[in-house]
Amino acid sequence: MSKIKITLVKSLAGRLKAHQACARGLGIRKIHKTIEINDTPENRGMVNKINYLLKVEK
């Protein structure tokens, strides 16, 4: 299964609760930390929802 790297580049403070929940669901905790997740439709949907907070790499 392919992987994608995501990095949180903007704060979650003051964001919609649904967007904060997406970040928690992806496992993102701190700004400028990079995690690697499986590229599934479920994860891709969460990434697309909060794409303005993230930097995404293949």
Give an overview in words.
The chain has helices at residues 17-26, 41-49, and strands spanning 3-8, 34-38, 54-57. The protein is an alpha+beta fold and 58 residues long. Helix 1 (17-26) packs across helix 2 (41-49). It starts with a strand and ends with a strand.
Instruction: Note the run of SSEs as H and E.
Output: EHEHE
Cross-sheet strand order for the largest sheet: 2-1-3
Instruction: List low-pLDDT spans.
Output: none
Number of domains: 1
Major sheet description:
3 strands, antiparallel
CATH superfamily: Ribosomal protein L30/L7
Shape: globular
The CATH topology corresponds to Ribosomal Protein L30, Chain: A
Mean pLDDT: 96
Q: What's the CATH C level? A: Alpha Beta
Provide the CATH architecture.
2-Layer Sandwich
Strand content: 25-35%
Radius of gyration: 10 Å
Features:
single chain; 58 residues; alpha+beta; Ribosomal Protein L30, Chain: A; three-stranded antiparallel sheet; 2 helices; 3 strands; 26% strand
Short description, anyone?
The chain is 33% helix and 26% strand. The protein is an alpha+beta fold. The chain starts with a strand and ends with a strand.
List the helices and strands and how they pair.
Layout: E1 3-8, H1 17-26, E2 34-38, H2 41-49, E3 54-57
Antiparallel strand pairs: 1-2, 1-3
Helix pairs in contact: 1-2
